[in-house]
Amino acid sequence: MRATAFIIFFSLFFAVYGLVNYYIFIRGWQAIPFGSPWRRPYLVLFLILASSYFAGRLLERVWLSWASDALV
Fold it and tell me: Distance between CA 42 and CA 33 in Å, rounded?
């Protein structure tokens, strides 16, 4: 039962996190005019920022440094 609750909690957490990030990304993407050279940098920067917290937490387990602190 405990493992099931754990799986449900993290499934809901990642679903909400993903949907919120998706909404923010789409609204920002719509704000940039079609054919603009800023669309690709926006995509790259958004992916880096959206995944930085989890990357920082994983890096903390392996190596504590200023990089893991900055990502978190």
Answer: 12
Number of domains in the chain: 1
Domain span at 49: 2-71
pLDDT tens for 43-56 read 999 999 999 988 88
Sequential DSSP letters for the chain: -HHHHHHHHHHHHHHHHHHHHHHHHHHHHHHSPTT-TTHHHHHHHHHHHHHHHHHHHHHHHH--SHHHHHH-
Per the CB < 8 A criterion, the answer to whether 45 and 25 are in contact is no
Asked whether 14 and 22 are in contact (CB, 8 A), the reply is no
